[in-house]
Amino acid sequence: xxxxxxxxxxxxxxxxxxxxxxxxxxxxxxxxxxxxxxxxxxxxxxxxxxxxxxxxxxxxxxxxxxxxxxxxxxxxxxxxxxxxxxxxxxxxxxxxxxxxxxxxxxxxxxxxxxxxxxxxxxxxxxxxxxxxxxxxxxxxxxxxxxxxxxxxxxxxxxxxxxxxxxxxxxxxxxxxxxxxx
Length: 181
What we know:
The chain has 181 residues and is mainly beta. It has one domain (20-180): Jelly Rolls (Sandwich), CATH 2.60.120.430. The protein is built from two helices and 14 strands; from the N terminus they run E-E-E-E-E-E-H-E-E-H-E-E-E-E-E-E. The strands form four sheets. Strands 1, 3, 4, 5, 12 and 14 form a six-stranded antiparallel beta sheet that branches. It has a four-stranded antiparallel beta sheet with strand order 2-13-8-11. 36% of the residues are buried.
């Protein structure tokens, strides 16, 4: 009787999500031209991190402040301010304007799908003001403040900015760390 033993070794592959970390400076004029009336000096939002598929993204404030008119000097959570009849980017996101807000000059963000970012004519500014063929819709903006962790369902780019509609009187900015897995 001949015994034939066959050994089969099965290789198991484990793929770990790659973690990517970026250090990003968000200048005080990076409003993406969101808010109304449109103030002067607004720069596009800052590209912070691009992911190629579903991911968890964490934004963490490291240092820096923004100095604004009227003696405002704030960190990433912003300050309480009466906007009068004006509209900040986060107010535009909610389709409201005027009154007192809690987050003037706060750190804000928006995640934009790759298909939009790769569209001809895309610019990281308000896509509702006819200033660019392809832009960002205000309804996608969100508050970040000191830190925020969120999940995205697909590929795209996180852009960061400042919750202010008149940025020409601002100085400074925020240093942040952005991590994606």
